[in-house]
Amino acid sequence: MQINRQKNFPSNLPVIIEDELFLYPFMITPIFLSDEQNLKALDLAIKDNSPILVVSSKPQNEGMREFEACYNAGVIGSVMRRVPMPDGRVKILFQGSLKGKIIEHLSTNPLIASVDVIDVQRPTNQKIDALLSVLREKVKNLSLLNHFFPPDLLKTIDESVEPVRVCDLISSALRLKKGIAYSFFIEENLESKILKLIDYIIEEIEANKLQKEIKSKVHSKIDKVNKEYFLKEQLKEIQKELGGDSSKEEEILEYKEKLEAKKPFMGEDAYKEIKKQIDRLSRMHPDGSEASMTQGYLDWALDVPFGNLSKKKLSIKDVEAQLNSDHYGLEKPKKRIVEYFGLRELLSLRGLDSKTNNGVILCFVGPPGVGKTSLANSIATALKRELIRVALGGLEDVNELRGHRRTYIGAMPGRIVQGLIEAKSMNPVVVLDEIDKLARSYKGDPTAVLLEILDPEQNSKFRDYYLNFNIDLSKVIFIATANDIGSIPAPLRDRMEFIQLSSYTPQEKFEIAKKYLIPQELKKHGLKPMEVSINKDALNLIIEEYTRESGVRNLRRRIADILRKVGLEILTSEVSKVSVTSKNLKDFLDKKVFEIDAVDKKDQIGIVNGLAWTSVGGDVLKIEVIKIKGKGNLQITGQLGDVMKESAQIAFSLIKTLIDDKSLKIPSNLAQKDDKGKEIAVYNAYDLHIHVPEGATPKDGPSAGITMSTAIASILSNSPVKHDLAMTGEITLSGKVLPIGGLKEKLIAAYKAKIKTALIPRKNYERDLDEIPSEVKDNMQILPVDTISDVLKQALVR
């Protein structure tokens, strides 16, 4: 197809938008088309046997087929060949002829525009020839620095007499970005075009020179490093020939000296293993990976404090004084700790210290915040020994305790050996925290390792997998802590003696806050005692209404909250003292928790106060029963466990028997008759619904048996239950009241709720009453009960 510059333009031409290439008039280029718009434009050009305009898309609009997404100028040319591809695309061979620009948009589907040619006229002066000479020279200079200009192209540029063609050839070879290429493409002033190209090529020359210089420096540096490496290797070989590497020999000698110094205090197996590894290291190349691992092993093994023991003589007076100094209350736990160390002191005085291996392992059990870890801290302080804490919560990898075998990358000793190294002593106090939260997985069962660690018959020869020799743990004082004894595996429970730490009473919390928490928090917050005062009423209010716990951890947090605001007020208001009272307490603390609701002020039918044990102390639960006309069905709600549901069934059956044998009298006005006039038992005339409030909290256990029985008896006999009375106890079908656990926490909760009378099983009354704080016993009547009849006699208002 012949395209005549003069006759054919301006002309209406189909437009193809190309995303990848920037075309020039002299190019014969394969173009791949896949989108519908371009294919329609191609079909139209072939159908009408007309030229076609190919324009480039703008960089940010690639893939779009709109006039706004492409440049306004491109190449006018013809399609020499069209070939369909297997993947659905169409390949065309496009021959460019002229530069063209879009004058007017005519159609968008397909793209059709009115197109005119861009005709750059050559001025008739010698300046253009001079500029072309400079341009050709710069191109030759650039070609020496990069590979953009092959010899054939340089020859064409040199021989061409058309300045526009020379510029286009150079532009196409430079691989310009679309924006820069387009600015050169549409420039109609030839002189300006050549000057811009010259400037661009000069910049490229400088950039290429800089890149070449950088590459040269990098290669020089690499060559220098290689040279140094080879020289160092040669130096090492020379040193070996002259007598060996002196620095390595010094290191080996240092290891041997450390080993000989510790030899009297370590076992024979430990000495042999460490010596063997030192000998291996002496035969290894110092830069090998094996040498690095062996060196790490020797550092760990020789850091084990063989023979280092605390020199302080054991004294129970010091232990007792320290415990009393650091803790208020906890009389029974402190007494047992003193007994434990008293036995050790007696054995030591009589020269029987080696037999202390037969001693027990203490385990402090109780809710969070009651002072389990704090007691261990006091023991370590009194004995002048280092305290090592090993957190066992969630531990499932045996190797964490026993050590990793040295075949693993990153292997290291177990936590017990690391604790000894950290303490720099073979007899520290080791606290095994949260021993009830051990896990088990495919990595092993940590319980098995703890059995060896805590067994006095075995721990004198505890083998750490990493060290690969026995460690004597018999002189370590192990103390475990736990929240729930039931979660500790039975074999571990057999190794330990449990010391229960129960909930604190409000009075105990008051004394702890006054003597310990407030002074400690004042120091932490940089305040002086004279700058802040918290009066008795405010402190009691914090304990009663702003904390919900059996310990004092949240109480400490609330005191810290107050002191932060006090510190801010002292800084901003320039006051010398801030007083916290019950009236202004709400200015320092935002939210009340209301640990235990006070009891109702009047007797009610079907509502009974029950006492419950929780992981954070005791609680008072109101058990409610209502009756609905029905057929004697029983419904139970409140997210109760199986044991508690069974207690409700037992209670219902028991009350039925009491009604049948007339032990529980039903008022005549509650009598019901069937259709035939025959009297129906009251429990068959109604459906009962038992509910335990706080339905979001799971509850279980048998100790609500007498509470449920009383509630059912109350609703069926229409008898109110005393509002200031609470109870706990398991019930049997024969009506006997069985003992329960957690009595101390339950009675403390009853005391906080202002209960006046508490009913408890007689066996608990006989064996556990001594553990109840006198503050609780003095302000509450605690009555023992043997049967359900005793309970109903005390609870129901007749």
UniProtKB/TrEMBL annotation:
Q: Which GO terms describe its molecular function?
A: ATP binding; ATP hydrolysis activity; ATP-dependent peptidase activity; sequence-specific DNA binding; serine-type endopeptidase activity
Question: What is the organism field in this record?
Answer: Campylobacter iguaniorum
Question: What gene does this protein come from?
Answer: lon
Q: Where is the active site?
A: 703, 746
Q: What class of enzyme is it?
A: hydrolase
Q: Which residues form the Lon N-terminal domain?
A: 13-205
What EC number(s) does the entry state? Answer: 3.4.21.53
Biological process per Gene Ontology, one example term: protein quality control for misfolded or incompletely synthesized proteins
Q: Name one GO cellular component term.
A: cytoplasm
Q: Where in the cell is it found?
A: Cytoplasm
**Annotated binding of ATP, by residue:** 366-373
Name of the molecule in the record: Lon protease
User: Where is the organism placed in the taxonomic lineage, from the top?
Assistant: Bacteria, Pseudomonadati, Campylobacterota, Epsilonproteobacteria, Campylobacterales
Assembly and partners? Homohexamer. Organized in a ring with a central cavity.
Q: Which residues form the Lon proteolytic domain?
A: 602-798
